[in-house]
Amino acid sequence: MTDVHFQRMKDLPSTHLLGAGTAMCAGCGGLEMIKEVYDVLGENTVFVNAAGCMTLLSVYPFTPFRGSWLYTAMASSPAGAQGVRDALDILKANGRMTEEEDLEVVVLSGDGSASGMGLSATSGAIDRGLDFIYLCYDNEGYGNTGQQTSPESPHGARTATDAVGPGNIGYKKDLFSIWVANKPAYAATVVGAEPLDLARKIEKAHELEGPRLILSLAPCPTGWGYDPAHTVEIGRLAVKTGVWPLKEYVDGKVVHTRHPGKRTPVEAYLETQDRFRHLFEPVRNDKVIAEIQARVDAYWAEVDVDDGTKA
Amino acid sequence: MTRALITGNAAAAWGGRLARMDYVPAFPITPQTEIIETIAKWTERGDIATRMVMYESEHSMITGAGAAAATGVRVFTATSSQGLLYGMEMLYTVAGWRAPFVLVNVSRGLASPITLEPDHNDIMAARDSGFLQIHCATCQEVVDSVLMAYRLGEDHRVRLPVIVNLDGFYLSFTREAVDLPSADAAAEFLPAFDPQGTEFRAGKPVSQAVAVLGGGTYSYFRYEQHLAAQAALPVYDEVAAEFNDRFGRLHPAIESYRAEDAEMVFVMMGSFATKAKDAVDRLREAGIAAGLLRPRLFRPFPRDAFRSALVGKKGVAVIDQNLSMGMGGVLHSELASALYGAPDAPRALTSFVGGLGGRDIAPAEFYEMAHATLRAAETGETPPPRLMYTHSELREMRKLQAAAHVERHEQDIA
User: Fold this and answer.
1) Could you say which of 3.90.320.10, 1.10.238.10, 3.40.50.10330, 3.40.50.970 is the CATH number of the domain covering B2-247?
2) Of B13, B103, B114, B383, whose Cβ has the fewest other Cβ atoms within 10 Å?
């Protein structure tokens, strides 16, 4: 592993590659993340997209990317990445393409595809040791269709399909651990609100070969119900409360890259969003708030305060 | 050229080998598996420079095939039946990428009930996908058709993926003597893959398969695809003529067997048509001027060729090895549409469904179809579509039902 390029905020790229004027909602946390990721990965990339919000980034005849793009379908973007990667390797191996013409192959998918419909294709790509980056913007629901409950919707959150009553009764799926259990080359969680941590992880992932996961929390103003101006603040709160642990899996172990020593209570995060409003109004639901807090506490109880490793 | 005694599946693999396929995304399914096992053996031994990768499903396999073709390599893949349907979303999707490759489908009936034996409902389900379709009746045709399919699909006027279809079991596992073109001759017929700008390279950014907004933009691209498929008709004839010049084997869009001077003509696809050939010979011996038309090219549909081959005939019997529930045979509908309004169109166009799930079509059934069709031509009354089933089959079925009944009610009886 080479030395980390990005030591301070001022080391982050000052010119930005991603074009403006996309169809994403104002304050989109997914787009915030992609913009930061793209500055590090650069234009020698091909994004292999799964059906989701980001499919509307490239609408004929416009694209915000300076590099390449291939839309596939909801269930099989890792398979599309496999086909592109294999073809590039074949072309290089028989001299039909130079090493300089090679591309980093990046799956771009939402959580609905990453943790649900597309999980089989992801599993296959990991089995085959595919050399690719899997970039997931996790907005904790089927965002593009109006925020229905997905495998990544958190417990207690109201969604378009859990719009009344207690909200989602399921629990957020641990996609990071599914990847880590299969020993990928790299896996990391990021959030756009922590750009330095993100840039370091993207740089690290870019230098490695094999299956690499970048799992980003993607605060979603329209789906979660908050003012688009608060995307960064909510992203930071997700980290400070410990709801969204920033961590990476490298060299066989999981290490937390931020350890919120004194965590802010989760309700500070929950009460910023309409999807959790029913936990506070008209009457406060202490039971569910305490359960969410207890799950976060239990997670962090297993994290070593000194070195950030997880038991 | 070498002459080899090989199965239809091996012939399909040889087609890909002679086409110098760069990449084979694969997933096993009966009765296609022998194709990918053959290719795997060749790649493992280093006989060919092809890269083969096992995917975890046909949906992914077809995605990977399209993505690799869109990156600029020559791709071969194969599936059957449920696999073709599992990948159906991606058939439609990758066809629109206009990145040609060849998919061999080894036809097998569809669930339910689940079966291993052949019919054409799987391939008919891919009818509107945008893939071109070539249907084979012999092992020789399989290897030749794969080579021709690459030429056809890669032509700059076409740029579409092509399915080469062969019947499971009857052709996939039947050994026939096959002339295999030499590698050099195949290379002269089929030049190196030319991506024609459809590729991914650093420094040459391109967005492929992007979304569109609005029906006008959508329709434009869909019409383009349809026009390209239609353009494949004359291109196919060119390719077939050149193939014939080089290899001495003509594979026309529609194979015609004793049909020129026939009064009644059978129309059917695939290897079961060889049974119809035999029936034609016997009917001729009995004084009935029968003939056979077998479309090899099903998409694009050779409408004009059918029209000119069938005008003036008394009757046409279409035998469909598929069943569109609530409508009938697919090929029959297509022929009716092709012949409607044609001057001097056949007086009778009858419909028969047979050969489902590998069910045999006996010579006596062909005679009955011929007579029923000629009768319809004379009386002007076309009988309703007929689902072929014999008394002895029904008798066997009743026995199975009796056994099932006994099993179900065993406890009651005891």
Assistant:
1) 3.40.50.970
2) B114
Is the CB of B72 inside 8 Å of chain A's CB atoms? Answer: yes
* Domain parsing of chain B, residue ranges: 2-247, 254-393
Instruction: Using an 8 Å CB-CB cutoff, list chain A residues near B54.
Output: 128
CB contact under 8 A, B71 and A83: yes
> Domain count of chain A?
1
The CATH architecture annotation of domain B254-393 reads 3-Layer(aba) Sandwich (3.40)
Q: What is the ipTM of this complex?
A: 0.97
The token duo for B270 is 């695939």
Say how far apart CA B53 and CA B63 lie, in whole Å.
13
DSSP, collapsed to helix, strand or coil, labels residue B412 as helix
To the nearest whole angstrom, how far is the Cα of B83 from the nearest Cα of chain A? 15
In tens, the pLDDT along B71-90 reads 999 999 999 999 999 999 99
With a CB cutoff of 8 Å and minimum separation 6, the contacts of A295 are A155, A171
Question: CB–CB of B67 and A103 under 8 A?
Answer: no
The answer to whether position A144 is within a domain reads: yes
On whether the CB atoms of residues A68 and B56 are closer than 8 A, the answer is no
Mean pLDDT by 10 residues, chain A (311 residues): 77 93 96 98 98 97 97 98 98 97 98 98 98 98 97 98 96 98 98 98 98 98 98 98 97 92 96 98 97 98 88 73
Q: Is residue A1 part of a domain?
A: no
Do domains B2-247 and B254-393 share one topology? The answer is yes
A88 with B61: Cβ contact below 8 A: no
Helices (H) and strands (E) in chain B, counts: 15, 16
